[in-house]
Automatic annotation (TrEMBL), chain A:
Record bears the keyword Iron: yes
GO BP term (any one): iron-sulfur cluster assembly
Role this protein plays: Scaffold protein for the de novo synthesis of iron-sulfur (Fe-S) clusters within mitochondria, which is required for maturation of both mitochondrial and cytoplasmic [2Fe-2S] and [4Fe-4S] proteins. First, a [2Fe-2S] cluster is transiently assembled on the scaffold protein ISCU (ISU1, ISU2 or ISU3). In a second step, the cluster is released from ISCU, transferred to a glutaredoxin, followed by the formation of mitochondrial [2Fe-2S] proteins, the synthesis of [4Fe-4S] clusters and their target-specific insertion into the recipient apoproteins.
GO cellular component: mitochondrial matrix
Protein known as: Iron-sulfur cluster assembly protein
Matching Pfam families: NifU_N
UniProt subcellular location: Mitochondrion matrix
Pathway noted in the entry: Cofactor biosynthesis; iron-sulfur cluster biosynthesis
GO molecular function: 2 iron, 2 sulfur cluster binding; iron ion binding
Domain NIF system FeS cluster assembly NifU N-terminal: 30-156
Cofactor: [2Fe-2S] cluster
InterPro entries in UniProt: ISCU (IPR011339), NIF_FeS_clus_asmbl_NifU_N (IPR002871)
UniProt lineage: Eukaryota, Viridiplantae, Streptophyta, Embryophyta, Bryophyta
Keywords, comma-separated and alphabetical: 2Fe-2S, Iron, Iron-sulfur, Metal-binding, Mitochondrion, Transit peptide
Automatic annotation (TrEMBL), chain B:
Family designation: Belongs to the HscB family.
GO MF annotation list: ATPase activator activity; protein-folding chaperone binding
Keywords: Chaperone
Protein name: J domain-containing protein
All copies of domain J, residue ranges: 165-237
One Pfam family from the record: HSCB_C
Organism: Ceratodon purpureus
One GO-annotated biological process of the protein: protein complex oligomerization
SMART domains on file: DnaJ
PANTHER family: IRON-SULFUR CLUSTER CO-CHAPERONE PROTEIN HSCB
Source species, domain of life: Eukaryota
């Protein structure tokens, strides 16, 4: 683990050498201002009722760093647009900032578009150093998991509805 | 990381040594068709290969007979050669025809195992006798000491050998269950003659070696002392890199962790925090006990979810400590 960590430092140091603006202070790695902003003022923190049929919940984790991330979406069932999103993340600043950005970006977007958000887009937006790329990966996985959960829920509700229809007709 | 394999009825290990190329082969190849390729990280010895091999075979084919094979492509810069003697009988192969013994030279760098494997029966616990023939850099005296810290003849401190794993370094058995008092004793014994302060009158070269050796011993001690890092280290020795495991989706575990983290976040009084901390310590203990069984049985892949779970509990405890 130490070797892994040291590699990360070395990589961060080499990227610092290339002059990534604002990411390095006096040779010591610091968070980019955008990360700090999202960390201090996270957008859309909260929870939706996970039993709401219009809500999809993505729960993902990165055991290596002990991060756990919950991202929820509220979907307009007619248009398939994500009308609202919220998240709750326990983890490092980069993980919180990544999920905050993700929740902002997916709001108002159709699900098909939201699912195409790449972790590299989030990482680029936040200027995450290489060692923190997995945090943005977690956010991407959370979006995908939330949409998958929503679709699974709708499919299940659909089959249940079709099953209950004949019962309703006979009653 | 899947092994491919098919059955073979006999096992006979033979050693074919060439310059920097050693092959451990099983006897009967007639019924073995498919090659097995697996990459391992450095600091690996045959016991580990055998153990993970046994595990995968168990998964692959429980009814398979016996036989194992592997070719080791080795490369290293140093002239030091470690010899590892593995007796197949000792490795617990349940085969009467597996009386042969094999040996191969250990080396650093990446070890690629290419072999043809048939089956192994059930339990597979390896015992390894390791013999080292190392040459002192100062007086060129040969030594069989492993790990080789100090030359017995000229008392020169030797360079750190990266191929020696933490268990070997502290001369304890490679297993998950460890007596922490023994570990501490071994650690202190080593530091008594490796501590850099003791070599201040020695040559610059030896000072560097002593510092390296001493640092490695500290690293080894603290890695093996902690039940979580010990498990992670054993997984790494077995070729499973848990640090690079990606996202997990286990809803039951994640929900539990999420709730625990929320509980910690919302807790305002100190008593509550102490209580949650105790609960988490108990949960870690449960994981540790489960890991003991898993490592004992040699099914190291089963240790992965336990280690992940344990890492989460550890994180919660750290969070509580930070808050207290």
């Amino acid at each position: 683990m130490l070797a892994h960590f040291a590699k990360g430092i070395a990589r961060a140091a080499s990227s610092a050498g290339q002059g990534s603006r604002g990411a390095v202070v006096f040779g010591q790695r610091a968070y980019h201002e955008k990360v700090v902003d999202h960390y201090d003022n996270p957008r859309n923190v909260g929870s939706f009722d996970k039993n709401d049929p219009n809500v999809g919940t993505g729960l993902v984790g990165a055991p290596a760093c002990g991060d756990v991330m919950k991202l929820q979406i509220k979907v307009d069932e007619k248009t398939g647009d994500i009308i609202d999103a919220c998240f709750k993340t326990f983890g490092c600043g980069s993980a919180i900032a990544s999920s905050s950005v993700a929740s902002e970006w997916i709001k108002g977007r159709p699900m098909d578009e939201a699912v195409s958000i790449k972790n590299s887009d989030i990482a680029k937006h936040l200027s995450l150093p290489p060692v923190k790329l997995h945090c943005s990966m977690l956010a991407e996985d959370a979006i995908k998991a939330a949409i998958k959960d929503y679709k699974a829920k709708r499919a299940k509700a659909g089959t249940e509805a079709s099953q209950s229809e004949p019962v309703a007709a006979t009653a | 990381m899947r092994w491919l394999g098919s059955k073979s009825s006999t096992l006979r290990c033979a050693l074919q040594s060439h310059l920097r190329f050693y092959e451990l082969v099983s006897g009967d190849f007639s019924s073995v068709n498919e090659p097995i390729v697996r990459s391992f990280t450095p600091n690996l010895d045959f016991g580990v290969v055998a153990q993970s091999l046994a595990h995968d075979l168990q998964e692959f084919d429980r009814s398979a007979a016996t036989a194992t094979a592997g070719s080791f492509f080795l490369g290293r810069e140093s002239d030091r050669t470690a010899k590892c003697v593995v007796t197949s009988g000792r490795m617990g192969l349940e085969s009467s025809s597996s009386g042969g013994s094999c040996s191969h030279d250990l080396a650093g760098g990446r070890v690629r195992v290419l072999g043809r494997v048939a089956g192994l029966k059930r339990r597979f616990s390896s015992t390894i006798a390791k013999r080292v023939e190392a040459k002192c850099w100062s007086c060129e005296e040969l030594s069989t000491a492993n790990p080789f810290f100090i030359c017995s003849s000229c008392k020169a401190i030797q360079p750190l050998d990266q191929d020696v794993d933490f268990f070997q370094l502290l001369s304890v058995d490679r297993r998950y269950v460890q007596d922490l008092k023994v570990l501490e004793r071994k650690y202190k014994q080593l530091q008594k003659f490796l501590h850099p302060d003791l070599s201040s009158r020695k040559s610059k070269r030896e000072q560097v070696y002593a510092a390296d050796q001493s640092a490695q011993v500290i690293k080894a001690y603290y890695t093996l002392l902690d039940p979580l890092s010990r498990a992670q280290y054993m997984l790494r020795l077995g070729g499973v890199n848990i640090d690079e495991e990606g996202t997990i989706h286990d809803p039951a575990l994640l929900m539990e962790i999420m709730e625990l983290r929320e509980e910690v976040e919302e807790a305002t009084d100190a008593d509550k925090l102490v209580k949650i901390k105790e609960q988490n310590k108990n949960k870690m203990l449960q994981c540790e006990n489960a890991l003991k069984e898993v490592f004992q049985s040699g099914r190291i892949m089963h240790a992965v979810p336990l280690v992940q779970r344990m890492a989460y509990y550890r994180k919660i405890i750290e969070e509580i400590t930070r808050k207290q």
